[in-house]
Amino acid sequence: MTQSHCIRSGRVYVVNLPVEEIHSHGSGDVVAIKSVILELTSDTGITGWGEASPWPVFTGTVEANVSALQDFFIPAIVGRNVFDVEAMLVEAESRVVHCWEAKAALETALLDIQGKALDLPIHDLLGGCHRDKVALSFSVANPDFQQDKAKIKRLFEDGVRIFKLKTGFNGHEFDLMRVQWLRERYADQVDLRIDYNQGMSAHEALPRLRDFESFRLSFIEQPVPRDNLEAMAHFTNVLNTPIMADESVFTPREALVGAQMRVADIYSLKIMKSGGLRRALQVAAIAKAAGIGVYGGCMFETGIAHLAGAHLMAALPELTLGCEFYMATYYATEDILVEPYPVKNGYVHIPGGPGLGMEVDRAKLEHYAQ
Description:
The N and C termini lie far apart (42 Å). The chain has helices spanning 62-77, 85-95, 100-118, 122-125, 145-157, 172-186, 202-210, 229-238, 252-261, 271-274, 277-290, 303-315, 327-330, 362-368; strands at residues 7-17, 23-25, 28-30, 33-42, 47-52, 133-135, 137-140, 162-166, 191-195, 220-221, 243-245, 266-269, 293-296, 343-344, 347-349. The protein folds into 2 domains: 7-119 and 362-368, Enolase-like, N-terminal domain (Enolase-like, domain 1), CATH 3.30.390.10; 125-349, Enolase-like C-terminal domain (TIM Barrel), CATH 3.20.20. The mean pLDDT is 97. β2 and β3 form a beta hairpin. By secondary structure, the protein is of the alpha/beta class. The strands form 4 sheets. A 7-stranded parallel sheet has the order 7-8-9-10-11-12-13. Strands 1-4-5 form a 3-stranded antiparallel sheet, sandwiched between helices. Strands 6-15-14 form a 3-stranded antiparallel sheet, covered by helices on one side.
């Protein structure tokens, strides 16, 4: 019989990690990784880690997620068995609306303790491992493209072969120029895709999107605001390049509506949008039933959330488009894990150790905590 492991305490940190450069998007700029770290401790002395990585223009605020964790979730789970994770998540959903990132942090920390208690990686708690590595995608988003050229060269030498260009923040000609440069410079050695982050109005989008058809892109991501499902469905219907929904699909319910309306050919899975790994797997299951592909997306995260994302990718039966867990390796100037996040030769390698599979460096955590 499994030993009982109950939550003894919880602690919340807000970290602010410096980054190598500005990243611009159709919905705004990012100049640091500001994230919420959750530490849970069991009465058997096991520590579990989770992360909430919000973005105000996308999912929510740091302040809201700190409050959700400190004022609502931690007081409600102290004394509870960590193996009652689904019951605690259902209660969290009823206690606080939205704050999906805080719910993801809560679930991740509970699963981290479970995995350590059972000597199993998190992906084994989700149904098993379907792959030991996932191709890494890097987002080209520096408004200074000369700097990005140098970084692309560096990543290409490291084995990275997937590049997603953030578009819609500096004019259509700038977007075309960058895609053309990459295709001419690297030809078919690289997989290219673009992401507008909701940066266009529907009436201007279609002619611009058609200009990219000749570049053999893997997908065009979220060209218009999240609630314009009709425009998304139209682009999916008339363009040869696949359309990916990110901001338009957070929850399993939105995944179902999106499938019914055929708003996209692909969904971007993010535990921060869905409220955890289990809910993201539900989104993936709906996508699979509808014949919609899936991709491993992320927010502006430290290695903790990246680890959770890697376990999600490992547990997905169908995954062909890679993942973008590059922040800890190629964006933050320093991460908060003891060992570097496992990126090698252009792939994220799935951790095999108990729980998340890697440890947090407490000195670095305290250093970057506000």
